[in-house]
């Protein structure tokens, strides 16, 4: 399937748990990975079946209420309903790093052997997050808005991590990332990215086209192929909504 025929791919955005079918339809032809910030939010959407969305079960490290609501048993019970965990990770500005580290360690222990995609936050803690992933022998990892240095990136590549990137990232940072490991994101509603809505990926596709010397259509086809590879190697393809899995299988 050529890039122009593929839907926009947003592998990290935030969508309200009570989003309506009409609001989802307004996103047009697109596929969005919809992160939750807490187990409470994840419970709200655990029974939803939205063909254009891949919902995640998350515990955002920088949200105190999410940390307060962490419960490993409840997370494990929810996990069977999801192909995606997100977002989780560490945030050096988010407070109570001791509690963040404890939760992140527990989460990785639970998900490391599951056929899942895992979207990981690493603000101010890129080296530490990569070290945690090594210790967990992690697979299916997607490092969201990753601004680590070349050593961090090398370490992430050693455990087959992928990188979701957005239009707020610099060209210099994007050039450090192997094209075969890159996915597109908006992190909607982040003001820095200036995406008008989830799956508004045109700006990052244009930026990658400049960095890679390819057309935006070729960029879109590249990131979809990357997602297929990641989903197959992690086993998550079997948990994805059927329309999205079919798109991957017929690339």
From TrEMBL:
**For a divalent metal cation 1, which residues are the binding ones?**
12, 14, 87, 187
Q: Is the Metal-binding keyword given for this protein?
A: yes
Which top EC class is named for this enzyme in its record?
hydrolase
Upper classification of the source organism reads: Bacteria, Bacillati, Actinomycetota, Actinomycetes, Micrococcales
Name the Gene Ontology molecular function terms of this record: hydrolase activity, acting on ester bonds; metal ion binding
Check the record and name the SUPFAM superfamilies matching this protein: Metallo-dependent hydrolases (SSF51556)
Q: What InterPro entries is this protein classified in?
A: Metal_Hydrolase, TatD-like
Residues reported in the UniProt entry to bind a divalent metal cation 2 = 121, 144
Q: Which UniProt keywords apply?
A: Hydrolase, Metal-binding
* Organism the protein comes from: Brevibacterium aurantiacum
EC number assigned by the record: 3.1.21.-
Know the name of this protein? Answer: TatD DNase family protein
Q: Which domain of life is it from?
A: Bacteria
Sorted alphabetically, which Pfam families does this protein's record hold?
Answer: TatD_DNase
